[in-house]
Amino acid sequence: MLGKLLKYDLKYMLKNMSIFYILAIFFAIATRVFFSLEQTVIINIIGQITCGCMFSMVASIIFNTIIRSWIRFKDSIYKDESYLTHTLPVTKVEIYGSRFLQSLIFMIVGFIVGVVSLFIAYYTKDRWILIKDTINSISVGLNLNTSFIVTSIILLCFLEVFNILQSGFLGLIIGNKRNNGKTAYSFLFGFIGYVLSQTFVILFLFFVGLFNSNVMSIFTSTALMDNNTINLLTVLSILIYILIIIEMAIRCSKELKKGVNVE
Asked: pLDDT (tens digit, 0 to 9) for every residue of the chain, 263 residues total?
């Protein structure tokens, strides 16, 4: 039954998101084409327009994935559609699991489309070397693996955005238990959940710093970190975000199991 729930959620999201994916790739290809032509005034203007449109579509993909996921969550659990959802032979954990997987899948797809769009529009061997040189020149003697750093930055951005999305789920679950002002309370509790998650990240790094002077240096020193410390912090940050997302998913499932007030 979880598979059937997920199928309908994916169909809903695909119907609303596919246009943004298509436009992002289209404008990325157009940007590549116009930037490769002789740069007359009109060609340059058109190229800048298509480039701006591409970035707009990439931003819209992330933004709309979050908003549409929240709308789908609320409509299927608390609005008219919820009467059908709650009559199905599924548990609250399965209902939340379907929304979690749907959001995760489309967030991954959104980031992939964004990265592919940027790759299509801008990638050249010379630019990749420039990125590598820029990273390596952040500090004298700093030796960082460019692929690792770029991949880690993308992954951390993904986890951060997904944490925002799931904080919204938690806010919706708690906020809709209220009799009045459900939207306001949903926003408030979602914001509180997000702030607490960020606070936990900092506290976790501080705790690790008690046993590792290099990590503690981010709290006590203004000096630039060496490559080993940067790599360690990157890995720790990724791990703690994954743990937070898992813990918040468990919390959301438990709160949903306590009952739902259908409007």
From this structure: 666 677 777 887 888 889 999 999 999 999 888 888 877 888 888 888 998 999 999 999 999 999 999 988 888 888 777 666 767 777 888 888 888 988 999 999 999 999 899 888 887 777 666 666 666 665 445 566 667 777 888 899 999 999 999 999 999 999 888 888 888 999 999 999 999 999 998 998 888 888 888 778 778 777 666 677 777 888 888 999 999 999 999 999 888 888 776 66
Pair 158, 107: CB distance under 8 Å: yes
SS3 content of the chain, % helix, strand, coil (to 5): 85, 0, 15
Angle at CA of residue 173, ends 189 and 17, nearest 5°: 100
Write 44-52 long-range contacts (CB < 8 A, 24+): 51/27, 51/121
| Residue 113 one-letter amino acid | V
For residue 251, give the nearest of 160, 137, 172 by alpha carbon. Answer: 172
Pairwise CA distance, residues 34 & 53, whole Å: 13
Three-state DSSP class for residue 27: helix
Tokens of 44: 């340059």
- Give the Cα separation of 201 and 189 in Å (integer): 18
- Termini Cα distance of the chain: 24
Q: At 112, give phi and psi (nearest 5°).
A: -65, -45
Inter-axis angle of helices 227-257 and 92-122, nearest 10: 140
